[in-house]
Amino acid sequence: MKTSTISSILGMAAGVAMISASPGSAEAQKAAAAEAQRVYARPTNAEIKRKLTPLQYSVTQNDDTETPFRNPYHDLKAAGIYVDIVSGEPLFSSLDKYDSGTGWPSFMRPLEPANIRITTDRKLGYTRTEVRSKHADSHLGHLFDDGPRPTGQRYCMNSASLRFVPVAKLEAQGYGKYLKLFKKA
Fold first, then answer.
1. Could you give the CA distance from residue 34 to residue 185 in angstroms, rounded to a whole number?
2. Are residues 5 and 58 in the same domain?
3. Catalytic site residues?
């Protein structure tokens, strides 16, 4: 069985178990264990093409950039996390999102630094810092040093490379461990 299929099955099983489990129950503990063992992997190219819209595919697989101000997340103010549209790996939190005025969703820092890979991009004839997801190798956007304090960084991402998971759906979709971040806020 393919890793991407196993990952999908584990993710669905964890989500179903979490929906039906009461906190502290054996089912909830099993769901939490499944979430902890969740594997994020790159699906086959055929699966990616089938799953994504043409824009999402073009951005994540061909390193394109979506149009500023005409994308779903640049001005979204809801609480939740942003995950890779291809693999589901957690990337950013709305708690670190801010309005950069650029027309793309911007974040001060990643939610899970281990899920981010930084590379050098010279495609436009000058050097930029490209941000990619670690497991799916999706092109996410670019990193700039003109962000707000405390980091001074701006992770300028393409909405087309992300999927937003609202706080109310974190547990059901297998991201329950991030609920505590929003309870503090």
1. 26
2. no
3. 156
